[in-house]
């Protein structure tokens, strides 16, 4: 029987982000519903009328991104491997990053996918609130990818976990891609900050690829992980199987009766 392990501090912070990002999404959804009731209401008017919602969202994500620029023991090893202090030499000089080529495909898919929304916006089928709502939905999906299931990992990158993910710090740039179409200080400042994170990540990768490879960096070894999400995911999968087995047996017993 697999011993149940407690969530690490980093994992608990992920769940906290999932909760408050979900709350922010609900707030924006309610704001969108209100805008449909008052169709003449412009996004700028909404910021003036209910500034708390938009300023709170800006502060939350701006603070999150600023912290990403610096080493922190409260962040995932996936984004912390870029820093020099987290580079622990293995003695091996053979840099292996098997998922590197798939990053181009992921980038193309993401750009094309969001260009569809951009085109719908240009055709005035979607409005600015939908683009903001889309960003918020992306932010929730980002945490779902980390905690439960990541299609990029499973279908394209094939990396073993978030800690070894080649595109971990692309998350904010991907999250705020729709803001390219939303003019305003709040929106474009978040977008620029997210792009700065991505550029910094990519420059570090091409200057110091040894930090991103488990073959050359011991920091990425499982024994040094401060996240332990793989164990947590296995526990969730086991629980899901138990639920499925219980449900199947229950249905069988009911049919017999």
Question: Which helices and strands, and how do they pair?
Answer:
Blueprint: H1 9-37, H2 43-49, H3 51-68, H4 77-80, H5 102-122, H6 128-147, H7 151-157, H8 171-175, H9 185-207, H10 229-256
Report on the structure:
Helix 1 (9-37) packs antiparallel against helix 6 (128-147), helix 2 (43-49) crosses helix 3 and helix 3 runs parallel beside helix 9 (185-207). By secondary structure, the protein is mainly α. The longest helix has 29 residues, at 9-37. 63% of the residues lie in helices and 0% in strands. The mean pLDDT is 88.
Oligomer: single chain
Task: Compute the separation of the termini in Å.
Answer: 32 Å
Overall pLDDT: 88
Helix content: 55-70%
Low-confidence stretches: none
Please report the number of helical segments.
10
Please indicate the percent range of residues in DSSP E strands (runs of 2 or more).
Answer: under 5%
Query: Which of globular, elongated, flat, extended, rod-shaped describes the shape?
Result: globular
How many strands, which pairing sense, and closed or not: the largest β-sheet? none
Order of helices and strands: HHHHHHHHHH
Number of beta strands: 0
Q: How big is the Rg?
A: 21 Å
Structural class: mainly alpha
What brief labels describe this structure?
257 residues; mainly alpha; 10 helices; 63% helix; globular
Q: Care to give the gist of this entry?
A:
The protein is mainly α and 257 residues long. 63% of the residues lie in helices and 0% in strands.
